Fold:
Amino acid sequence: MARRVAIVGTGQTYHKSHRPDVTSREMIKEAVSSALADAELTIRDIDAIVIGNMDHFESINYVDTYSVEGSGGVMKPIMKVTTGGTTGATVAIAAYYHVSSGFFDRVLAIGFEKNSESDTTGAIITCSDPVWDRFSYSGAIPSLATEATAYMEKYGATQEDAALIAERDRGHAMNNPYAHLRRPLTVADIMASPMLAYPIKLGDICPRSDGACAIVLAADGIAQKITGKPAWFKAAAVRHTYTWFGDSTDYNKGLVSMQRASKDAYAQAGITKPVDEIDVAELYLPYTWAGLKWIEDIGFCGPGEASKFVGDGHTHMGGKLPINPSGGVISTNCIGATALLRVAEAAIQVMGKGDTRQVPDVRNAIATGFGGCFWSDIVILSSERP
Amino acid sequence: MTEWLKSVEPLTLKGQIAVPYTWWVGETGGRFMAALRDHRKILGTKCSSCKTVYVPARKSCGRCFIDMEEWVDIADEGVIQAYTIVHYGHPVQPAKPPFAYALIRLDGADVGFLHVIKKDLDRIKNGLRVKAKFRAERTGTILDIDSFELM
Ligand SMILES: [Zn+2]
Structure:
């Protein structure tokens, strides 16, 4: 029988467009030190480490060994996990499995990225099949734009409907001192921003950030001694579907990996009415249309209903189910850390440490990771020990 | 075993991606590089816990997991601890073969310093003393030291 596991501490850097003052490993140490301080532990208390990033983004292949000065992994079991955009969530889930298995009591999960050190599009395109897909899908934007146009055609959603997602998230980022972009952005600003690949404009997509995130996980019995309010894992699900972009064009089906992962996660957590039972969501929404289409796939509203659901304010702070109190990916995107930030921010909400971005009385929080070729990871955290 | 060559035409596709990486040296590494460039000086940092002196200077001691605040002047000479002589050429190598890669324990440091020796290769032995030869034009890289030479 697997052991119960909780997050007992989180740490992150102040995310920026570039960090000339530190190397990756020095930046990692900032996040790790702050996570350990949050849990009131030292590196000596940590039994094992899971770390991840997009290794081709910095051209550092063995980040597990490269990073030990910063991760604290000297002479400890440390493993690298990398799954594309989902990396941060996968790192958290792998660390959860480490503790749940009974092999380790206290495990550190780390995600980081220095997007400023390479050409993100050049690096990201290496995710697509070299022989068949790489020539055409230049980076993340065209594949997402294709998904967006299909959604617009099917449900009549407008560019303004989508822009409201970025206005919301960028507004929320004003409450988060760690966020990279802390300037409000309005629907009108987004509509006036340059078109990149129809219908995606500059204001619709995430930035490139330098930053790191770390969380500390602990086993049942130990977690309660570390903190009075651990964030318990209620569910963790990983679904990777196809790898050929052409296989994902049946948009009538939606983001299948997220539908399957959330169905699995809700079953694990005993959740039947997500909107009523989940108090806050930290979703990996790398562009605005994701904030419409994918919240349908995750079951927050029915197909085609997202524009109204968001437009009615249900997902803003103070709404029924606030999404991205941190400002989300639209405000901060240090890719290998991005999905771990979702998990960390969900934990922060459960632990009541959100300060100006805190949603009141959070019991259940959901976090997602998105990446690769439309892959999804889901984590559900709770103030209740499952 | 090579029968398939007759029936399969081995087509390939040439990659077009050349990602231009530019790594930030960071504040600590930058101070080390600037000292090399501006003062021909080699700097280390010392851990306040285990007292290890690291060169090149770095920000934290991995073993003790603490930041290092104390900067230490390291000598530009020391002792060869280990080496190999390279006989093949490659674009990433900093010198034309034959040359030696050597781990050099600089006076005042507790760890080896990786660099190259270009001359007197037939005389190289562990334990011999070597001295840094700086380049006249320095730009703030580890190759502002051209090489080490036997003393
Ligand atoms: Zn030390």
Summary: The mean pLDDT of chain B is 94. The beta strands of chain B are 42-46, 53-54, 60-61, 66-67, 70-74, 77-86, 99-106, 113-117, 129-134, 145-150.
